[in-house]
Q: What sequence folds into this?
């Protein structure tokens, strides 16, 4: 019952002090603790009433902080969060997400791909706006990045927002007006401008906070509140999908929804069912992920779109760096079937010869990411060295420490970045 009512502040303080944390801030809804050494320095903010915990690393990487907010945390889990706070963080690099996008304006494309607008483990949402190539990227720590053309009042309300104020949790740009937007804060309050009158009436008359919201062109919108109430004004094809028999439990509720222009839409339900009407290029981007995967999508003007999914859900022929298809096409153009077979045998012989002369023992350790559960482990993948097949080193990782799976195609090795805990471990030979 204690977990249902929230956290006991005295117990939280006892757990924090027992692990060497000190209290640095006390607000109406939360208590913040800091540790100067653990995981390179970190802070943990505990929201007492609604059992949420925010973990933030103190050291910035490329100008931003790694942070995450965990919801519905049990009291029994608090001790492990204080003991190993970084274990629940997804670092900015390696990137757990893969993004397909289509923006017509070159400046917007260039900024979207730059280090100033990273799509990484701290991503919260991406929303496309009224003008072509207009977008707003929100991160879990409340920071944001955006293109030109977003509503000036939206920028003013979020830029320089005081740390003690509730962070923005959901931002949506409108497609009916260049001035339309919606902001949901972590405490359930909201700001908006130029929304459809019917939607404004729902927001003003409800005592429940917004759970999901999408803005389309004209008067089109969809909103679901945390109490389960839904309201929408959408094109007929989508309205029929939303109205037809859906189960009353959460498996039948709208999990994600996007409204584009000219009646385009995408909707994903809690039971995994998906429906959509959109440009062919957006459908192709969606098809690059497994059919059961959870993706975030938004649709913009002039057939623009952005599709975000997890790398571990990419289909094999769409994994970044896998260019087998292009190699096959090139070889088909270069010669006959007999020549292709001969060339393949020569390539295989060359790879075997290179393996005989190579030694993989002295590779620098970095970070290993499990594509199945997302666990990040400092070290390097265990590889059998051609020259020293029995050698085992201290940084070798045989399996994911999170879920235990050891399939090589589900473990990714990435170089570590300065400042990441454990990313610069020394590689020591143990046996062999």
A:
């Amino acid at each position: 019952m204690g977990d249902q009512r929230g956290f006991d502040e005295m117990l939280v303080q006892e757990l924090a002090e027992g692990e060497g944390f000190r209290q640095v801030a006390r607000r109406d809804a939360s208590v913040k603790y800091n540790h100067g050494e653990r995981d390179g320095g970190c802070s943990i903010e505990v929201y007492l009433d609604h059992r949420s915990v925010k973990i933030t690393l103190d050291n910035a990487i490329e100008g931003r902080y790694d942070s995450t907010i965990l919801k519905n945390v049990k009291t029994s889990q608090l001790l492990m969060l204080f003991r190993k706070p970084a274990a629940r963080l997804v670092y900015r690099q390696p990137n757990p997400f893969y993004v397909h996008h289509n923006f017509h304006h070159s400046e917007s494309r260039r900024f979207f791909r730059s280090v100033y607008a990273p799509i990484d483990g701290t991503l919260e949402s991406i929303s496309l706006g009224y003008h072509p190539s207009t977008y707003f990227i929100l991160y879990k720590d409340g920071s944001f990045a955006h293109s030109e053309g977003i509503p000036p009042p939206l920028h003013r309300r979020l830029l320089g927002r005081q740390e003690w104020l509730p962070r923005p949790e959901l931002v949506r740009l409108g497609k009916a007006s260049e001035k339309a937007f919606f902001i949901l804060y972590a405490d359930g309050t909201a700001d908006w401008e130029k929304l459809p009158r019917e939607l404004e009436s729902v927001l003003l008359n409800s005592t429940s906070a917004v759970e999901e919201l999408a803005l389309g062109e004209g008067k089109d919108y969809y909103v679901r509140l945390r109490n389960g109430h839904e309201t929408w004004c959408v094109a007929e094809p989508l309205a029929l999908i939303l109205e037809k028999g859906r189960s009353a439990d959460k498996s039948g509720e709208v999990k994600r929804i996007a409204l584009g222009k000219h009646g385009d839409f995408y909707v994903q339900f809690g039971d995994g069912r998906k429906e959509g009407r959109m440009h062919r290029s957006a459908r192709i981007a969606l098809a690059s992920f497994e059919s059961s995967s959870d993706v975030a999508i938004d649709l913009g003007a002039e057939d623009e779109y952005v599709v975000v999914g997890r790398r571990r859900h990419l289909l094999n022929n769409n994994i970044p760096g896998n260019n087998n298809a292009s190699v096959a096409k090139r070889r088909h153009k270069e010669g006959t079937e007999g020549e292709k077979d001969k060339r393949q045998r020569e390539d295989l012989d060359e790879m075997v010869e290179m393996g005989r002369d190579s030694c993989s023992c002295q590779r620098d350790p970095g970070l290993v990411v499990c594509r199945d559960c997302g666990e990040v482990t400092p070290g390097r993948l265990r590889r059998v060295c051609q020259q020293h097949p029995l050698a085992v080193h201290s940084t070798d990782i045989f399996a994911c420490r999170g879920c235990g799976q050891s399939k090589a195609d589900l473990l990714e090795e990435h170089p570590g970045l300065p400042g990441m805990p454990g990313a610069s471990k020394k590689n020591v030979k143990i046996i062999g």
